[in-house]
Amino acid sequence: MECRVLSIQSHVVRGYVGNKSATFPLQVLGFEVDSINSVQFSNHTGYTHWKGQVLTADELNVLYEGIKLNKVNRYDYILTGYSRDTSFLMTVVDIIQELKKANPSLVYVCDPVMGDQGAMYVPEYLLPVYRDNVVPLADILTPNQFEAELLTGRKITTEEDAVEVMDLLHKMGPETVVLTSTDLPSRRGDQFLVALGSQKIVKPDGTVTSQIICMDIPKVDAVFVGTGDLFAALLLAWTHHYPKDLKAACEKTVSVMHHVIKRTITYANEMAGPGKRPSPAQLELRMVQSKADIENPAIVVEAKVLQKYSH
Amino acid sequence: QCIFQNTSSTVQKLFLRQTGEAEGQRGFLGFEVDSINSVQFSPIQGDGTGDFDPAPSYSHWRGQVLTADELHVLYEGIKLNNVHKYDYVLTGYTRDTSFLEMVVDIVQELKRANPNLVYVCDPVLGDHGSMNLYPVYKNKVVPVADIITPNQFEAELLTGKTITTEKDAVEVMDLLHAMGPDTVVITSSDLPSRLGDRFLVSLGSQRHVRPDGSRKTQRVRIDVPKVDAVFVGTGDLFAAMLLAWTHHYPKDLKMACDKTFSVMHHVIKRTIAYAHELAGPGRRPSPPQLELRMVQSKADIENPDVVMEATIIS
C-alpha cells in the first residue's frame, strides 16, 4: 500500500495529542505520514504547566514551499485537527486547495475542533472560517454534537435532528460525516453515549448511495486528551480500507478507541492508587502498548444501520 | 521505558540527515518516545553548506530551527510537571554549539534524576567535520555519553589518532572508553574486509566491570555489504536500533550488533530495491526515491532475521 498522508497538527514532547496521536497508528497501519507540527509544546495544556513554541502561518508556508519546490507535494490524504489561529487555518485552506489541484482524488479528513459540552475552547471567530472555508473542502468530517450544531446552526435533541444535521453538513461539502459523540439517550442506558455516522456518495451518473449508522459507546469516567485526534486518524485508515462501508470503518475505529481507552484507564487507575483520581500525566493514552489492537482490532462495538439506499 | 530524544524533524519524514528518528519505529519495539524536535524542515537540506554527503540531496529545503533557549523552555515544561524521569536519552545531528551545550546540561540533570539513565550519542561531525562542534563533543558531550556511534572519521577526530589497522581501531575504541562511554560502535571504516572490497568493516567494543571489580572488554567486528547509493537517516536509524537492542542485550554486544546490523540491512535492501524500481533501469535514484522504506519495514524492525553476524575479536 503506497499511501501518503500530510498531517498538520500539534506536537508535544511528552504524551499523545495531535500529531503524536495520529502518526504512530497510521504508520503501524502502513501509511507514510508526513507531519507538519503546528506547535511544539512540552505536553498538552491539561497539565498544570505547559511550555513551548507555535508555528506561524508564514512558517507553515515556508515548510510547504520546501515540499513544493522539490516536487513532492502529492498526497493521498490530509489530516487536520486543533487550531487557534485564523491566519494559520486560512493558510492550511490554501495548501489543501493546492494539493487537491495536484491530486483531485485527495481526501481531506477534518476534525473541526471548536469545543464541547456547549462551550467553545477556541476563539469564536474561528467558526466562520470553519463553516465557510474549511468544511466545504473536507471529504470526511468528525465533529462532536456541539461542533455540528455550531456549523449548521441547528440544535440536536433527537436522532431525527442528528440525521438532518448530518445531511446539512453533507450539503456543505463532506461525503462522510461522523458525529463522534452526542447527548442523545442510548437505548442501552446511561452508561452509553450515542455516536452517528452518515455517508452520502453522489456518483458522476447522478446515483446517490447513502448509509446512516449509529453506535452505542460505553462511557468512561475520565477526561482523555488526544482521543479525538486518534479517532480522526483511525477513521482515515479504516475508511481507506472500507471506502464505501461506513459501518465497517466505524466499527474498526470505535473498537480500537475502546481498547486504547480501556488499557489507558486501567493503567491510570493503577498508577494513581485506590480512590485517587488519575492525573493528566497518568491518563496519557497507552498508545505504544496498544499496537496489536491498532493493527488488528477485535470488534467490540457494532454499528446499527439506520438507513441505507442507493438510487 | 522512556526516551528523551533530540531530533530533527522534517515534513517529509521524521528525520533529517543523521539526526532524529521516526518515533513509530521505536514505538514498534515498545519504547515510549518523547521527542524534542531540534528543527522542522521540509525535505533535507542540500549540499550548499559544504557539509558532509557529497551525494545529490534534495535541491530545496525550508524550515525553522530551535534555539538553545527554546530547547530550555521545552525542557522546563517537562520538569515543572515533574515528568522528567527518563531511562534513555538519544541525540544526533546538531549544528549549533550553544544548542549542544544545552543538551549536555539537560542530560546531566536527567542523570541526576535517574542515575541509571543511558545516554546514546551519535557524535555527528560528518566526514569533513564542523570544527567548532568538535571540542564540545570531545570535552563535554562524549564524557557524559554511555553509548556512542561514531564513524571512523569522528572516532579519529575525537581521539586524535588515525585508524589504519584493526589494532588501531581497538586502541581508538579503548581511548573512547577512557573518555566516558562503556559502549562504542565504529559504524563504518575504511579498513579492508576479509570478505573483499564489496564489504566495509564496522567494529564495536563494550567494557564491563565484573562483580570482583575487574574489567572485561568484549570486542566485535562486522563485515557489512556495501551498497551503491547514499542514504540519509541511516545513522539515526542505527543509533535508535542500537539503543533498542542493547536494551535487550545489555551485556552482549555481539547479539545487539547482530540484530541492529541485520535490521539496517533489511531496511536498506528494501529501500534500494524500491528506489531502483522507481528510478527505472540505468538511472540513479533521486533523494525522494531513496527515502528509507521505514513503515514498510515494520516486521523486520520488530523481529529481524539475523543476516549479519558479528565476529568476536579479542
From TrEMBL, chain A:
Give the pathway annotation.
Cofactor metabolism; pyridoxal 5'-phosphate salvage; pyridoxine 5'-phosphate from pyridoxine: step 1/1; Cofactor metabolism; pyridoxal 5'-phosphate salvage; pyridoxal 5'-phosphate from pyridoxal: step 1/1; Cofactor metabolism; pyridoxal 5'-phosphate salvage; pyridoxamine 5'-phosphate from pyridoxamine: step 1/1
| Keywords assigned by UniProt, alphabetized | Acetylation, ATP-binding, Cytoplasm, Kinase, Magnesium, Metal-binding, Nucleotide-binding, Phosphoprotein, Sodium, Transferase
UniProt similarity note:
Belongs to the pyridoxine kinase family.
Where is this protein localized, as stated in its record?
Cytoplasm, Cytosol
Q: What is the lineage of its organism?
A: Eukaryota, Metazoa, Chordata, Craniata, Vertebrata
An annotated GO cellular component of this protein is:
cytosol
Relate the protein's function as given in its record.
Answer: Catalyzes the phosphorylation of the dietary vitamin B6 vitamers pyridoxal (PL), pyridoxine (PN) and pyridoxamine (PM) to form pyridoxal 5'-phosphate (PLP), pyridoxine 5'-phosphate (PNP) and pyridoxamine 5'-phosphate (PMP), respectively. PLP is the active form of vitamin B6, and acts as a cofactor for over 140 different enzymatic reactions.
Complex and partners: Homodimer.
Record keywords: Metal-binding included? yes
Keyword Cytoplasm in record: yes
Q: From the Swiss-Prot or TrEMBL record, what is one GO molecular function term?
A: metal ion binding
| A Pfam family assignment | Phos_pyr_kin
| Organism field | Dissostichus eleginoides
Reaction(s) catalyzed by this protein?
pyridoxal + ATP = pyridoxal 5'-phosphate + ADP + H(+); pyridoxine + ATP = pyridoxine 5'-phosphate + ADP + H(+); pyridoxamine + ATP = pyridoxamine 5'-phosphate + ADP + H(+)
Q: Which InterPro entries match?
A: PM/HMP-P_kinase-1, PyrdxlKinase, Ribokinase-like
Q: Which GO terms describe its biological process?
A: pyridoxal 5'-phosphate salvage
Superkingdom of the source species: Eukaryota
The Pyridoxamine kinase/Phosphomethylpyrimidine kinase domain covers 93-268
Q: List the protein's name.
A: Pyridoxal kinase
Residues passing through the membrane, by range: none
Q: What is its EC number?
A: 2.7.1.35
Q: Which cofactors, if any, are listed as required?
A: Mg(2+); Zn(2+)
Automatic annotation (TrEMBL), chain B:
Q: Which reaction does it catalyse?
A: pyridoxamine + ATP = pyridoxamine 5'-phosphate + ADP + H(+); pyridoxal + ATP = pyridoxal 5'-phosphate + ADP + H(+); pyridoxine + ATP = pyridoxine 5'-phosphate + ADP + H(+)
Which InterPro entries does this one have? PM/HMP-P_kinase-1 (IPR013749), PyrdxlKinase (IPR004625), Ribokinase-like (IPR029056)
Ranges where the Pyridoxamine kinase/Phosphomethylpyrimidine kinase domain occurs: 91-275
Q: Which UniProt keywords apply?
A: ATP-binding, Kinase, Nucleotide-binding, Transferase
Q: What are the recorded GO MF terms, alphabetically?
A: ATP binding; pyridoxal kinase activity
- Asked if the keyword Kinase belongs to this entry, the reply reads yes
Q: Which GO terms describe its biological process?
A: pyridoxal 5'-phosphate salvage
Pathway field of the UniProt record reads: Cofactor metabolism; pyridoxal 5'-phosphate salvage; pyridoxine 5'-phosphate from pyridoxine: step 1/1; Cofactor metabolism; pyridoxal 5'-phosphate salvage; pyridoxamine 5'-phosphate from pyridoxamine: step 1/1; Cofactor metabolism; pyridoxal 5'-phosphate salvage; pyridoxal 5'-phosphate from pyridoxal: step 1/1
Q: Which family does it belong to?
A: Belongs to the pyridoxine kinase family.
Q: What is this protein called?
A: Pyridoxal kinase
